[in-house]
Design goal:
The complex is a heterodimer of chains A (419) and B (201).
Chain A (H helix, E strand, L loop, with lengths): L2 H11 L1 H33 L7 E5 L3 H10 L8 E2 H8 L4 E13 L2 E6 L2 H5 L1 E2 L3 E2 L2 E4 L7 E4 L1 H7 L6 E2 L18 E7 L9 E5 H7 L3 E2 L2 E2 L7 H4 L8 E2 L1 E6 L5 H9 L6 E4 L1 H12 L1 H30 L2 H9 L4 H42 L10 H27 L2 H5 L4
Parallel strand pairs in A: 4-11, 8-10
Antiparallel strand pairs in A: 1-15, 1-16, 2-14, 3-4, 3-15, 5-6, 7-10, 8-11, 9-10, 12-13
Helix pairs in contact in A: 1-13, 2-11, 2-13, 11-14, 13-14
Chain B lengths: L2 H20 L10 E9 L2 E9 H4 L9 H14 L2 H4 E2 L6 E9 L6 E4 L10 H14 L7 E10 L7 E4 L1 H4 L5 E8 L2 E7 L5 E3 L2
Parallel strand pairs in B: 1-8
Antiparallel strand pairs in B: 1-2, 2-6, 3-7, 4-5, 4-6, 7-10, 8-9
The chains are: A alpha+beta (419), B alpha+beta (201).
C-alpha cells in the first residue's frame, strides 16, 4: 500500500476531525483573502473616483485641496476663477472639452453643482465608465435639475418633482431660493462616487437664482420672477473649478504648466490621478490598518492549522507505535504524517478559495450598488498564491512536529497508552 | 502718430514692466528629490526628469575645475542611457529616439538626435522654453538637471513597469517622484534606492 493511499485512508478513518480541521483552515483562508480583496477594492474604487479627466483647474491651491472641493465636495474653495480665465482656457487648442463646476449652494444638506450637460458626457469613473441616467434625461431648461442617486434615494425624489435650492451650504440656513423652484428631469444611476451625493443644475441657473441677491442676502423689495430671469444675461462671472480633457495626452504637462504660470490670474491645474494618490497616502492609514488585520488573520490561520493538526496527531500516538511495531521506519511515519497534514492544508486552501469566489459572486453586486465598492473578480494573484503556498507548507511542517515526537518516544510509550 | 499719444503709451509700457517685476515666483528645490514624468500615447512615449544638480553632479554651479568638468561629462554620458536609468520591459520593444540633456545653471545643453525619432511633435518647443528658463536662472544658487527622452514602442500595452537603475548610477539621489500618464490613467508614486521598480497601473 502506497504511503499516499495510507494517508488518505487514515484521514478517512478520522473524517469528522479531518473535515472540521479543513473547514477551519478554509475559513481562515477565506477571511484572509476577502480582507485582501476588500483592501484592494477600496483602494481601486477610491483611485477611480474620477478618471478620463486630464486636468482639474481651480484657483491657486494645493492639489489635494482642489481635488477635495471640486470632486469630493469637501470643504470650500478659497477662491473662484473668473469667467474670462475660464473662457481663455476653454479656447486653447489643446483643450478637447471643458466642464465648469460652480459650487456654493445646497439642497437639504447636499451640494448643488452648477455645471453644463457636458458633465454627464465627460465625467468618467472606474477606468472608463460613463455616468448613466437611472431615470429621465439631462439638463435642458434653465430650471432643470439632475440629482445624484443618493440624493434621490434619501429624499425620495422622482422625475418631475419640484425642489428648492438653499443659499449657502449650511443646513437649513433659512435663505431659500424659493421663488425659483427647479424641476427634477433626471436621476443618475449609483456610481459609488461623490457624484451620487450632489444636485446638478445648469451654470446659468446658478446666476439666475442669484440675480436679485446681493452680498449674501436677497435685496429687499427686489423680486425678479423666474419668467423674467430667462430673458436676462445669465453669463456667470466666476466658476469654482473646471474639469479639462485634452486632445492629446502628450500636452498634459505643458498645459498644466501653462495654467500654473498663467499671468492674469493665479490658478492651479492638477492631475486628478496624482492628487488622488496623494490623498490616498493621507487616508491610507485605513488601508494599513486593513493590512495589519489581514496579517493577523494569516498568523491566526497558520497557528490554527498547526494547532488542529497537532491536536489530531497527538491522539494517534498509539497508531504510530503500532505502525512502528509493524516495521515502519521513523522516516516512513514522518512522511505519512506530513502527507496527511499537507493534504488537510491543501484541501483547506482549495475550499477556502472556493468559499471566496462564492462570496464574491454573491456579494459583488450588493457591495457595488449599496456601497459603491467594486470588487474585481479575477484569478488569485501572485501574493495570494504565495500565502496559500505558505499555508500548505505550514501544514506539512505541522505534521513533522508529531512525527519528530513519535520518533523520539520509545515504542513502549506508545503501546502502553491508556485512554 | 501724434506725440500726445506717445506719452501715455510709454507710461503704459513702463508700468507694465514695473508690474512684471513685481511678480515673484520661487520653485521648490530639495536635494535628493527629483521628478520623473512619463507620458505614453499610442506607440510613443516621452520621459523627462528634473533633478537637483547636486544629486547628479555633486555641485550646483558652473564647473570650475577639471574634475568638475569630468563629472559633468560623465553624468551626461550616464544620462544618455535611459535604457539603464529608466528601463522599460523588454516585451514592450521600446527604441530610444531623441535625447536631450540640460544642465541648467551649471551650464551646457546637449542635443542628441536619432534618425528614428519623429520630430514633428510640437513638444520640442516646450523643451526649448525649458532650456531658456534654466539659462535665465543662471544667477540662482540652485540648479536643476533635466533630461528628456523620446521612445517608440512596438507594444506599448506591455509597458507595465519601469525599473530605475537611476539610483545605482547616481548614489546621491534619494527619491524620484514618479508620474506616469497612459491610456489606463494617471499613476503616481515614489521610487528610491530601496524601491527601484514602479508598477504602472
Amino acid at each position: 500500500m502506497s504511503l499516499f493511499r495510507l494517508a488518505l485512508l487514515s484521514l478517512w478513518n478520522r473524517r469528522l476531525t479531518a473535515i472540521l480541521t479543513i473547514l477551519g483552515i478554509a475559513l481562515s483562508v477565506t477571511l484572509f483573502l476577502s480582507v485582501e480583496k476588500l483592501r484592494n477594492g477600496a483602494r481601486e474604487s477610491f483611485a477611480n473616483t474620477i478618471s478620463g479627466t486630464d486636468l482639474i483647474v481651480g484657483a491657486r491651491a494645493g492639489d489635494v485641496q482642489l481635488l477635495l472641493y471640486s470632486v469630493f465636495r469637501i470643504g470650500d474653495a478659497t477662491n473662484n476663477i473668473t469667467w474670462e480665465s475660464y473662457q481663455e482656457i476653454a479656447e486653447r487648442d489643446e483643450v478637447d472639452w471643458i466642464v465648469p463646476i460652480s459650487l456654493g449652494d445646497s439642497h437639504r444638506g447636499y451640494r448643488v453643482v452648477g455645471t453644463t450637460s457636458g458633465f454627464f458626457d465627460h465625467y468618467r469613473y472606474r477606468r472608463d465608465t460613463s455616468l448613466r441616467f437611472e431615470a429621465g434625461t439631462t439638463l435642458d431648461d434653465l430650471f432643470d435639475t439632475v440629482v445624484g442617486a443618493d440624493v434621490a434615494a434619501a429624499l425620495g425624489y422622482s422625475v418631475g418633482d419640484s425642489i428648492i435650492v438653499s443659499h449657502g451650504t449650511g443646513r437649513g440656513s433659512g435663505s431659500e431660493h424659493d421663488d425659483k423652484p427647479f424641476r427634477v428631469t433626471g436621476i443618475l444611476a449609483k456610481t459609488g462616487t461623490p457624484v451620487d451625493r450632489a444636485v446638478y443644475v445648469g451654470l446659468e441657473a446658478i446666476e439666475a437664482i442669484h440675480v436679485d441677491w446681493q452680498g449674501g442676502g436677497r435685496v429687499e423689495g427686489l423680486r425678479i420672477p423666474a419668467e423674467r430671469v430667462r430673458n436676462m444675461n445669465l453669463t456667470p462671472k466666476t466658476v469654482t473649478a473646471a474639469l479639462v480633457g485634452l486632445k492629446s495626452r502628450i500636452t498634459t504637462f505643458r498645459f498644466q504648466r501653462f495654467v500654473n504660470e498663467y499671468e492674469a490670474e493665479p490658478m492651479t491645474a492638477i492631475l486628478p490621478g496624482v492628487a488622488l494618490s496623494n490623498l490616498w497616502s493621507l487616508v491610507g492609514v485605513a488601508e494599513r490598518a486593513l493590512s495589519a488585520v489581514s496579517l493577523m488573520v494569516i498568523v491566526t490561520a497558520l497557528l490554527g492549522v498547526v494547532t488542529t493538526l497537532l491536536a489530531s496527531l497527538e491522539e494517534r500516538r498509539r497508531e504510530m507505535a503500532i505502525l512502528r511495531a509493524n516495521g515502519a521506519s521513523p522516516r516512513t511515519i514522518s512522511v505519512l504524517l506530513a502527507a496527511e497534514s499537507g493534504l488537510i492544508a491543501l484541501a483547506g486552501a482549495i475550499l477556502g478559495l472556493a468559499f471566496l469566489y462564492v462570496l464574491l459572486f454573491t456579494l459583488q453586486p450588493v457591495l457595488d450598488s449599496r456601497f459603491g465598492l467594486y470588487l474585481k473578480i479575477d484569478a488569485p494573484d501572485l501574493r495570494d498564491c504565495a500565502i496559500l503556498g505558505i499555508i500548505i507548507l505550514a501544514g506539512i511542517a505541522a505534521g513533522l512536529i508529531p512525527a519528530w515526537r513519535a520518533y523520539r518516544r520509545s515504542l513502549a510509550d506508545g503501546m502502553s497508552i491508556r485512554s | 502718430m501724434k506725440p500726445a499719444i506717445w506719452l501715455p503709451m510709454a507710461l503704459l509700457a513702463f508700468t507694465g514692466a514695473a508690474i512684471a517685476e513685481e511678480k515673484r515666483h520661487a520653485d521648490a528645490h530639495e536635494h535628493g528629490h527629483g521628478t520623473f514624468r512619463m507620458i505614453i500615447e499610442d506607440d510613443h512615449a516621452v520621459m523627462e526628469i528634473e533633478v537637483p544638480a547636486a544629486d547628479i553632479l555633486g555641485f550646483e554651479h558652473a564647473p570650475s575645475t577639471a574634475d568638475q568638468r569630468d563629472a559633468m561629462a560623465e553624468a551626461a554620458a550616464t544620462l544618455s542611457r535611459p535604457d539603464i536609468l529608466f528601463a522599460t520591459p523588454e516585451s514592450a520593444g521600446c527604441a530610444i529616439g531623441q535625447i536631450e540633456i540640460g544642465f541648467g545653471a551649471t551650464g551646457g545643453h546637449r542635443h542628441e538626435h536619432d534618425g528614428h525619432a519623429d520630430e514633428d511633435d510640437h513638444d520640442d518647443e516646450k523643451h526649448d522654453d525649458h532650456a531658456h528658463d534654466d539659462h535665465d536662472k543662471e544667477e540662482d544658487t540652485h540648479s536643476e538637471v533635466t533630461a528628456f527622452y523620446r521612445l517608440a514602442c512596438e507594444k506599448p500595452e506591455a509597458l507595465d513597469q519601469i525599473e530605475f537603475g537611476y539610483f545605482k548610477a547616481f548614489p546621491a539621489a534619494e527619491e524620484l517622484e514618479v508620474v506616469i500618464l497612459s491610456a489606463a490613467g494617471q499613476s503616481a508614486g515614489e521610487v528610491g534606492p530601496d524601491e527601484t521598480v514602479f508598477e504602472i497601473e
